[in-house]
Write a structure and sequence with these properties.
about 160 residues; alpha+beta; 5 helices
Length: about 160
């Protein structure tokens, strides 16, 4: 006979952040991006005055946005300790096409609030869709364009702008 014990809980290290944590993170990222869009390059203390989080949480989330190439810092990571780094939004860069047959799309963030990001595609008029997180925008944009334009989603290179 097999023994059945108490149900095993999922290990939070392998299941990722909960929906509530993802929603708070998305809201914070939207606040940071919105602040930088309105004010341009800003110091950590200026951004901190705008968002309601502790300094360490802001630093971690600025790092996440920087790794995702959404924002940039004027100083390399090792040089930020005794200096005043300025954070700003990354400017759209020209995408190198991976394949000559790929179509470049521009996914434009229209609004970000309450754990939802509203995105449109410049090259597909009338296309508007929602995503729950910034890192899902390129895949969702390619899928939306593929559906509308009757092509494979791998046929698109996506650039996200604000």
């Amino acid at each position: 006979m097999s023994q059945s014990g108490p149900p095993q809980k999922a290990d939070p290290r392998t299941t990722g952040p909960s929906a509530a944590v993802r929603e708070r993170r998305t809201r914070l990222h939207a606040q940071i991006i919105s602040y930088l869009a309105r004010n341009g390059a800003s110091r950590l203390k200026d951004i901190l005055a705008e968002v309601d989080v502790c300094r360490d949480t802001l630093i971690v989330n600025l790092g996440i946005l920087e790794e995702s190439s959404i924002i940039q810092c004027d100083l390399p990571k090792g040089a930020r300790y005794r200096a005043t780094p300025f954070y700003s939004l990354c400017r759209p860069a020209t995408l190198r096409q991976r394949d000559k047959n790929q179509v470049q799309l521009t996914a434009r963030i229209q609004e970000a609030a309450d754990g939802k990001i509203v995105v449109s595609i410049d090259e597909v008029p009338g296309s508007v869709f929602l995503v729950p997180a910034f890192d899902q925008i390129p895949g969702a944009a390619a899928a939306a364009a593929a559906s509308t334009l009757q092509r494979d989603k791998d046929a698109f290179a996506v650039q996200v702008v604000y």
